[in-house]
Design goal:
- The chain contains 10 helices and 18 strands.
- Strand 3 and strand 4 form a beta hairpin.
- The radius of gyration is 23 Å and the shape is globular.
Length: 392
């Protein structure tokens, strides 16, 4: 626990009287490290998307809260996540995205691993020309696997390994979008976007949760999907966001449109929903396309937003996909000045975390309340462990 722990009692109050998280939760490296353990590593958090490694042998290194991880599409067709280090001396194995043609070879002493993580070769480990040693049990020295699960193409990881099963932890949001439980096809390069923003990752979640800012930040979108067409979505402890009752499908010059997902009820003819699944994944669904945004923090004040668009079929019109990608790029880029402006504002001495509009900001307060509760529980556990250790 940080030496100067923050007071979170005001954050947990009802939305009518609550304050937002204190400034330190956006700028302090010690609080950032505390939140890594309380909000990210102990939960099911988004790491990447399976489309990042589309074919067997594809490997992608990812630094996740300072931890070197490796997203790997095994030759058995399974996408796994491993710690990106050799079990010999901890050397980084893969330093750039690439196709693994044979084994994963450590560049230091040439220990080699299969695409399933198993240690398969230890050259000269028993001395020159001796590739085995009784003290080196290859069966127990494979790559360290990180617990993972794929849902809506997002690769979710639980670093500590002790979160409830994914299907239990995410039961509410899985049920809410059960109609969309069908294949997703990535839109390709024109539907893949990375935005690097000078902002704490939580501000991206907070902004995404609410529609209050639409008239001023997204005037184009608000011109047809107005503020009054939106509704709040809240599942305390799990997710929050917003929906709209007015979704306008994109059409081409000859009237072509993206094919719909199959079997959707009439409620999705004009509706769309945008949900922040705690802690760091932003999802959107429409009748004819969907998207996933994975937030990868890079310290307290910088975040990489990994954005991916998906469709109901793999053979959608390329020109239309490109237009759709550009439209969403415009919308997402419009938010940058907001989250970066709030980040700069968190350096203002005396700011008390701000207040919430009970009518418009309750999804954002829902996220704050979840974060504060998790942090308080983490601190209580740390104090309990410290007390136990002191009395031993």
């Amino acid at each position: 626990m940080p030496k100067d722990a923050t007071d979170l009692s005001g954050v947990c109050r009802p939305v009518e009287t609550a304050n937002g998280l204190p400034n330190a939760h956006y700028v302090d490296p010690a609080i950032y490290a505390e939140e890594r353990d309380a909000l990210i590593f102990s939960q099911w958090a988004g790491l990447a998307v399976a489309a990042d490694v589309p074919t067997p042998g594809d490997a992608r290194p990812i630094t996740f809260f300072g931890m070197p991880l490796l997203l790997l599409h095994g030759r058995d067709g399974t996408v796994r996540v491993f710690q990106n280090i050799c079990r010999h001396r901890g050397m980084i194995l893969v330093d750039a995205p690439r196709r693994i043609e044979g084994a994963i070879r450590c560049p230091y002493h040439s220990w080699c691993y299969g695409s399933d993580g198993k240690l398969v070769s230890t050259p000269h480990v028993g001395g020159p020309g001796h590739n085995t040693h009784d003290a080196i049990d290859r069966a127990t020295l494979g790559l360290i696997e990180v617990r993972s699960h794929i849902w809506r193409d997002v690769v979710w990881v639980n670093v500590t390994g002790d979160a409830p099963p994914f299907e239990d932890a995410m039961a509410e949001v899985i049920e809410r979008w059960a109609a969309f439980d069908q294949p997703l096809y990535h839109g390709g390069p024109e539907n893949r976007l990375t935005l690097d923003v000078d902002s704490n990752w939580k501000l991206a979640v907070e902004n995404y949760c609410e529609s209050y800012h639409l008239p001023w930040v997204h005037p184009g979108l608000n011109s047809y999907s107005r503020l009054e067409d939106h509704y709040n979505i809240e599942a305390p402890g799990a997710f929050s966001g917003q929906g709209t009752l007015v979704y306008r499908q994109l059409s081409g010059e000859s009237g072509q449109r993206f094919p719909d997902f199959e079997g959707l009820g009439s409620q999705w003819d004009k509706a769309a929903e945008y949900i922040a699944v705690y802690p760091n994944v932003l999802l959107g669904v429409h009748r004819d396309h969907a998207f996933a945004i994975v937030l990868i923090p890079d310290g307290p004040e910088r975040t990489s937003e990994q954005i991916h668009l998906y469709y109901a079929r793999p053979d959608t019109d390329g020109g239309l996909r490109q237009r759709n990608g550009q439209l969403w790029k415009t919308v997402f880029e419009e938010d940058i000045f907001v989250v970066e402006g709030m980040q700069r504002g968190r350096h203002a001495m005396g700011f008390d975390g701000g207040r919430f509009s009970p009518a418009m900001d309750s999804p954002t307060h829902c996220f704050h309340s979840w974060a504060a509760g998790k942090i308080q529980a983490h601190r209580a556990g740390a104090n309990e462990a410290a007390d136990g250790g002191g009395s031993a």
